[in-house]
Amino acid sequence: MVATLIGWTGDWDLAEECAQDAFTAALVSWQRDGVPRSPGAWLTTAARNRATDRLRRDTTGAAKLRELAVLARDPDGPVVEEIPDERLRLIFTCCHPAVPFPARVALTLRTLAGLSTAEIARAFLTTEPTMAQRLVRAKRKIKEAGIPYRVPPVEDLPQRLAAVLAVLYLIFNEGYDEECGERDARRALTAEAIRLARLLVRLMPHEPEPRGLLALMLLHEARRATRIEDGVLVALENQDRSRWDRALIDEGVAVLDEALAMRRVGPYQVQAAIAACHATASDAAGTDWPQIAILYAELARLAPSPVVDLNRAVAVAMTDGIAAGLAMVDGLTESGLLRGYHLLPATRADLLRRDSRAAEARAAYEDALELAPTEAERRYLRGRLEEL
């Protein structure tokens, strides 16, 4: 509904306010008159009427209404059928190159995925006030630059693709990071991310990275049922592989093969290849850690980040020995680049535990416990502490 209103008014703030007004009106009207036959249409009409009233009271808005009326009668007006989904269309609009990359992604997550500012800040490893300011600046930039709500021409799609892919993957990750009390809402997010990724593959059939992202999502989704048991996070090596969704794994591997056949390897294809190594191993002992270490080295080249380096450290530890992996983790700790990121001490703790250094592992697990953002992860860390 917000996407439709933004497309009609071109005003982010007005669209969000009128959508909220429509829901407020529904709380009163539906309680009195009953839920309408088509609730979505009722809400969209109410929000659109509210936007029309607001525009009529404003000189600039009145001009906008006249412009909309002309476009409605103009057979040569803007055509938007190239992207047959209102939400995906708005994602491409948000991802205009005039807006800084992190702000593009953050604004899209806030407007379209309904994620809170706090959730987006967590995804970007930053603070909520910093993210709030970033969102305000992004909206202001779009308004001041007069960035239009329209499907970009075909030649402009690739330069927006990286941000669009980042948005879809963050939507997926937010849904994948489920807590027991909100599983339905979280699974709706992952389902929507996969749906939009499939649309993107059809929209850009000659681009390999949308396929890489879709493969990555499918391979992760295949393991969802075994990630959390009784409210406790389950480590990959301890998950019940007989419960993994083999149809999703087969589809993910097939989609990845299609992407790799285009011979333009990107970060999502490499991440999908790592996920495929885990998903296709018959058991934890059969995991091809040397191949995963090579893939992480390639990922670090294509998309360098301290989080990638941390994951690579685990693969190196499993391939070349715990000491080699710990050296990499200690280097990251000293750099301070992942300060406050709970998986840094958690990874260090796990490697120390495997190296039979119980006292040091306990201290690291306690550090991780203080930083862990979800109860499922905290329960997992408490369990490790109890084992030690």
UniProtKB/TrEMBL annotation:
Residues 160-259 form the DUF6596 domain. Keywords: Sigma factor, Transcription, Transcription regulation. Residues 92-142 form the RNA polymerase sigma factor 70 region 4 type domain. Pfam families: DUF6596, Sigma70_r2, Sigma70_r4_2. Residues 8-58 form the RNA polymerase sigma-70 region domain. GO terms for molecular function: DNA binding; sigma factor activity. GO terms for biological process: DNA-templated transcription initiation. Belongs to the sigma-70 factor family. ECF subfamily. It comes from the Bacteria. This is RNA polymerase, sigma-24 subunit, ECF subfamily. InterPro entries: DUF6596, RNA_pol_sigma-70_dom, RNA_pol_sigma70_r2, RNA_pol_sigma70_r4_t2, RNA_pol_sigma_r2, RNA_pol_sigma_r3/r4-like, WH-like_DNA-bd_sf.
